[in-house]
């Protein structure tokens, strides 16, 4: 029986991946690894709308002993390592590196210690390239951004990839570009826009959407396409290789906000909030998907418009339930 362990399983992408695997790979034994304080909410979530059992285990990803114990208990054939501090705006460098680098090493060492080494899908980020030219999406062989230029999150993911080279016989690196969808926290730009619009529609806010840099270009995917890519990579990707999860078709944050506003039931205006600007913002982040397409046959099936519509619908539900 296939046994898959997913770290960060109670997070935005983790929940979508678990649901996808339950449908895509029925009969697979799924274990979600979460922080101890998340266990109760994870169990409540997994009990809703699913007939397939998910096992849950706890570990502090930065603690070698607890990670090793959790991996040994699960005995996975495969691991998807999602657990991370994932915000590009995170300024706590020590905490980011402890989770994203030390935690990744712990997972890889634990996987290597299994009787039958598990293949491990390590989730990096398209941000490791730094800024791309819109007409030349980044390819996997491109040089990574120099350290210190785009913040500690980008640096930590590049360092994580360096750790993966020590475990090239089992580590597969995915570089997903920006993605959104139902369940993403409002700390990220698209759900922040959608939440504000939903609150404006509900009469909870004045008709003003506060924004940061709208000129940045992002290769924006639907989270459902991203987890489909992870599933495909688990099945057929080559350890020691790196794969972009991207479309190669970036759009400005302004155009995405305007698309959300066009779906609003009320007129809103846009206002710059200086507190939302990042000193190390990446001007354009986009990647070429050719390698993943050629290797596992993946391509994005949903549009950016689909991702925006689903995110706005989700936040309308959240705001409506909280009224």
Could you characterize what this model shows?
The chain is α/β, with parallel strands linked by helices and 323 residues long. It has a domain at 3-182 and 222-248 and 284-301: 3-Layer(aba) Sandwich (Rossmann fold). The protein is 40% helix and 16% strand. The protein has ten helices and 14 strands. The chain has helices at residues 12-24, 39-46, 64-74, 93-112, 152-164, 189-201, 223-236, 253-262, 290-296, 304-322, and strands at 3-7, 29-34, 54-58, 78-81, 119-123, 171-176, 179-180, 208-211, 217-218, 221-222, 242-245, 251-252, 269-272, 284-285. The strands form four sheets. Strands 3-2-1-4-5-6-11 form a seven-stranded parallel sheet, with helices on both faces. Strands 12-9-14 form a three-stranded mixed sheet. Helix 2 (39-46) links the parallel strand 2 (29-34) and strand 3 (54-58). Helix 3 (64-74) crosses helix 4 (93-112), helix 4 (93-112) packs parallel to helix 5 (152-164) and helix 6 packs across helix 10 (304-322).
């Amino acid at each position: 029986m296939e046994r898959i362990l997913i770290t960060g399983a109670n997070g935005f992408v983790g929940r979508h991946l678990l649901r996808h695997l339950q449908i895509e790979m029925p009969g697979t034994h799924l274990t979600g690894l979460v922080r101890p304080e998340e266990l109760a909410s994870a169990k409540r979530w997994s009990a809703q709308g699913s007939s397939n059992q998910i096992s849950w285990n706890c570990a502090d990803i930065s603690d070698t002993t607890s990670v090793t114990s959790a991996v040994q208990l699960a005995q996975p054939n495969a691991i998807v390592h999602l657990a991370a501090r994932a915000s590009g705006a995170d300024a706590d460098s020590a905490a980011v590196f402890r989770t994203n680098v030390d935690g990744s090493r712990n997972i890889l060492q634990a996987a290597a210690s299994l009787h039958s080494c598990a293949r491990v899908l390590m989730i990096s980020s398209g941000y490791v390239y730094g800024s791309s030219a819109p007409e030349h999406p980044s390819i996997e062989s491109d040089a990574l951004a120099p350290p210190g230029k785009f913040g500690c999150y980008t640096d930590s993911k590049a360092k994580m990839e360096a750790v993966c080279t020590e475990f090239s016989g089992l580590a597969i690196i995915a570089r997903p570009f920006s993605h959104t969808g139902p369940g993403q926290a409002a700390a990220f730009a698209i759900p922040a826009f959608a939440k504000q619009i939903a609150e404006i529609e509900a009469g909870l806010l004045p008709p003003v959407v506060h924004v940061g840099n709208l000129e940045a270009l992002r290769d924006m995917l639907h989270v459902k396409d991203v987890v489909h890519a992870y599933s495909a990579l688990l099945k057929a990707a080559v350890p020691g290789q790196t794969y972009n999860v991207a479309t190669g078709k970036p759009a400005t944050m302004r155009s995405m906000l305007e698309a959300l506003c066009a779906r609003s039931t009320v007129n809103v205006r846009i206002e710059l909030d200086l507190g939302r600007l990042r000193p190390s913002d990446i001007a354009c982040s986009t990647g070429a998907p050719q390698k993943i397409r050629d290797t596992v046959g993946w391509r994005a099936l949903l549009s950016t418009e689909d991702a925006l519509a689903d995110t706005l619908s989700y936040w309308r539900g959240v705001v409506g339930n909280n009224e």
